[in-house]
Design brief:
globular, 5 helices, single chain, four-stranded antiparallel sheet, about 170 residues, alpha+beta
C-alpha cells in the first residue's frame, strides 16, 4: 500500500466534504489532525484557515506553524488527514507534533502506520530530533501505530476526564 500526502486545494472540496460526512455518519464529531475541518461549515473558510497557519508570517498568534495534508490512496481517494506542527507551545506540549485520522470505513488497513511514517520523514526534513505524539489510552489501535513507528512512552496527562499518554519518537 502506498499513500500520498497532498496539501488541500479548492479542487478537493467535494471529496473533502464527503470525507467529513463519513465521520459524522459514523457518529464521530472530532476529526483529529483536521485543523478544525470538523468545526467549520465552509470548506473555503477552512482552506483559508490552514493556509494562513502554514506560514510564520500569517499563523494565528495562538497557534503554531502547521502543515495540513490530505492522505490519498493509490486511487487518489481521501482516506485520511494529518497535520504536522513545527513546534510545540502551550497546550500543544501535551497534544504533540501531529494529529491524524483515517476515514472510518478505511481503518484497520495500515493507513495510520504509513501516515505517521510519512510525518516522521517530514519532521526529519524540518530538522527535528524527535517528535511527541499523544493518544488517549483507550485508542489501542493508535497506541500500536505509535509504538510500531518507534514511539516510547514519555508521560501521561488528563484531558476532559480521559487519560492520555505522550510518546516520543526519536528521529
Amino acid at each position: 500500500m502506498k499513500i500520498e500526502l497532498v496539501k488541500p486545494t479548492l479542487e478537493h472540496k467535494k471529496e473533502a466534504m464527503e470525507f467529513k460526512k463519513s465521520f459524522l455518519d459514523a457518529g464521530e464529531k472530532v476529526i483529529n489532525g483536521s485543523e478544525m475541518l470538523d468545526c467549520m461549515e465552509s470548506y473555503e473558510e477552512w482552506l483559508a484557515h490552514i493556509t494562513m497557519n502554514a506560514s510564520a508570517e500569517t499563523v494565528n498568534p495562538d497557534w503554531v506553524v502547521t502543515d495540513t495534508f490530505f492522505v490519498l490512496d493509490k486511487n487518489r481517494k481521501i482516506v485520511g488527514i494529518v497535520d504536522f506542527r513545527h513546534e510545540l507551545k502551550g497546550f500543544l506540549v501535551d497534544f504533540g507534533h501531529c494529529g491524524y485520522s483515517v476515514r472510518p470505513e478505511e481503518r484497520n488497513r495500515g493507513y495510520a502506520t504509513e501516515i505517521l511514517g510519512d510525518i516522521i520523514k517530514i519532521a526529519k526534513e524540518q530538522g527535528l530530533d524527535s517528535i511527541n505524539i499523544s493518544v488517549e489510552r483507550s485508542n489501542v489501535p493508535s497506541v500500536k501505530t505509535i509504538i510500531k513507528n518507534g514511539g516510547k512512552y514519555k508521560r501521561s496527562f488528563e484531558f476532559q476526564g480521559e487519560f492520555a499518554d505522550v510518546y516520543e519518537i526519536s528521529l
